[in-house]
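Hey all, quick one. A colleague (J.T.) asked me to put the flavin mononucleotide job into the tracker so the inputs and the structure tokens live in one place instead of scattered across chat threads. No bug as far as I know, just bookkeeping. Sequence used:
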Amino acid sequence: MIKINEDKCIGCGLCVKDCFTKEIEVTGRKAKPKGIRCIECGHCIAVCPTNAIVLENYPMSEVLEYEKGAFEIDPDQYLRSLKYRRTIRQFSGRQVENQKIENIIEAGRYSPTGGNQQNVSFCVMRDDIEPLRNMVIDELYKFANLPEEEKAKLNISWYGNLWKQMYLDYHDKNRKDGLFFDAGTVILVISKSMQNACIAAAHMETMVYAQGLGMLYSGFFTRAAAHSKEIKEYLRLDQGQEVAACLVIGYPDVKYQRTVPRKPAEVAWR
Ligand SMILES: Cc1cc2nc3c(=O)[nH]c(=O)nc-3n(C[C@H](O)[C@H](O)[C@H](O)COP(=O)(O)O)c2cc1C
Ligand code: SF4
Ligand code: SF4
């Protein structure tokens, strides 16, 4: 719920104009909340010229004042960095600093959510990577050994041989990790809304690379988690929650010299 400081309000109406849910009205040159429907998006806070509005129960001290040059991204540099980004499957043993992990979570936390539900949560796996990896590799092996028709139903027919090989490599004396590639940090992005979680994950990915780290999205993990009661229980997911993305993060042990080509975009201009 918003609170408006009447002493600061100059009745300009900018908050009324920018409020998506029409929650604010100006009467007697003072803005007032109607108390009908506020999605706590903060647009009124951001737009108010006199900083007259706060959201109760939110950490207002984290709000930053706009400063020209400090909040913009250079578009050419941004696009180049996206083109240079590669999925990393070779990690050095260097542990990712906690501050960098917190910055990645912050990028997820500040991502937009439908209706501003803010219903995306994060699970940082470090100490528990080993048991999780064991469980997932075992589960995938079980899936790989299902009868063909069941695999077809789960849409995993194609992966069977890969998962069998991954299991064998992992249980070999060299313990080759074809799931997390020996990365030291895994962040799971969890939500009841796939769309919200995937948007958060994409922003987190950008933050990963901006900090000199690298990552891969583990689709093997999300498939295993989607079909396995045991993994869901281990992760203590609430009813309806899914692991939308699994970010496997570390310092890259590979250096790329250039970007790669892609197929032309399929675009309809209408
Ligand atoms: C998946 C998704 C669907 C959304 N759908 C709509 C929409 O249909 N109409 C709309 O006005 N805003 C829509 N939004 C915008 C959200 O309401 C907005 O992101 C949220 O209120 C937070 O505000 P902010 O993006 O300015 O931080 C959508 C956002 C997301 C992530
Ligand atoms: S934007 Fe701020 S100053 Fe303007 S009407 Fe709203 S609360 Fe008052
Ligand atoms: S927080 Fe968003 S929905 Fe609530 S009053 Fe402000 S602009 Fe409107």
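Adding what we noticed when we looked at it: The mean pLDDT is 96. The domain at 84-250 is CATH 3.40.109.10 (NADH Oxidase).
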